[in-house]
Write a structure and sequence with these properties.
Length: 349
């Protein structure tokens, strides 16, 4: 670990009002110079020399979720949740710059045709379902929603195979106790503005990379059009009709092993009720199978994540809180980003 375990001040370039600003271009050259100076001023060493490896996993802190202009802005019940979460996460990075060994960011990544986007399905009149429609297994069996011929064309599958997959897919979700198939607005579109990290978090990650000699990790998820992929550690459903392996759908075992090598793993991001909760749930499953005591190395930054709340439509706050209670009961720690990292329970720096 570096010579200091105290929290650092916020650097001069940091502006909490610009953490979520999709019009801002970062001055990478200027940031690199400032980060090098910061390293020298505060005596920061290369992260590879850290005796205690501290990792931060930032889940889907992208414009599509964390910017109020985003297609799926996660406002929480406060209405401004992901904006405030992003600022706290950036400040957590800066204040603990000398302690954070590595930062890994996940990127939800989609294209037009996906099982959770409207054009995948049609009703008897050829109309697509509206965003936030919940599609049950019974809906598919009853013919309320069927596979779209335009989707089949785009994804190069037969209409009958696509329909069989929908029947299998929704049945698998129900059997596993997962959320029903949810039709979301187009979001996290590859190549679009919504796909990028919010600027203030990208800025903090880049600053950390230069100051600590630690390449920021980026983990892409959600590219398989035939399954939802809330968790970065694996898709919702791994198989298609006939229980055949869904092409390119598999558990992210390499990333799981990498995360479990940290001595301390902090987790933040969006949304608490979906991608954050299911990622932690998947991680806990692997921990339980390997060594339940490993749960004690995981720290959930509760003030850096918010649940999906669509006023008058959906509110997953209770489900998110219940999930975090379950994670706590399994041995994970629920902390606040403003709590000094060296004072977190069971942390030995």
């Amino acid at each position: 670990m570096t010579a200091t375990v105290t929290q650092l001040p916020l650097p001069a370039h940091y502006d909490p009002a610009k953490v979520v600003d999709d019009e801002r271009w970062l001055d990478y050259g200027g940031l690199a110079t400032a980060a090098t100076d910061w390293r020298q001023t505060h005596g920061l060493s290369a992260s590879a020399t850290d005796r205690t490896k501290v990792g931060l996993l930032v889940i889907d802190a992208q414009n599509t979720f964390a910017n109020p202009k985003g297609e799926l802005f996660v406002g929480g019940r406060s209405g401004n949740g992901a904006v405030e979460d992003s600022a706290r996460t950036a400040e957590f990075i800066y204040r603990n710059l000398g302690l954070l060994s590595d930062i890994h960011c996940t990127l939800d990544t989609h294209r037009a045709y996906a099982v959770f986007h409207p054009p995948f399905l049609v009703d008897e009149f050829g109309a697509n379902p509206a965003p936030y429609t919940l599609v049950s297994h019974q809906d598919i069996l009853d013919g309320k929603w069927t596979a779209s011929p335009f989707m089949a064309s785009a994804l190069h599958v037969s209409l009958s195979a696509a329909q069989q997959h929908l029947e299998h897919y929704t049945q698998q979700l129900a059997a596993a106790g997962r959320y029903a198939l949810t039709i979301w607005p187009f979001h996290a579109m590859l190549g679009g503005k919504g796909h990028a990290l919010v600027s203030g978090l990208e800025e903090a990650c880049f600053f950390h990379a230069i100051a600590r000699g630690a390449q920021t990790g980026f983990e892409v998820k959600g590219t398989n059009a035939f399954t939802e992929n809330y968790s970065v550690l694996g898709p919702e459903v791994l198989t298609t009709a006939g229980n055949r392996q869904l092409p390119s759908a598999q558990r992210n075992t390499v990333f799981i092993e990498m995360l479990l090598k940290f001595d301390v793993l902090a987790i933040a991001g969006q949304a608490k009720s979906h991608c954050v909760a299911w990622t932690i749930d998947d991680l806990l499953s692997d921990i339980t199978a390997k060594d339940p005591n490993l749960a004690g190395k995981v720290y959930l930054l509760e003030d850096c994540t918010s649940p999906v709340v669509i006023p008058g439509v959906l509110d997953y706050t209770d489900e998110a809180d219940a999930a975090f209670d379950r994670f706590r009961n399994a041995g994970m720690h629920v902390v606040k980003s403003t709590d000094p990292l060296p004072s977190w329970p069971d942390v030995r720096l």
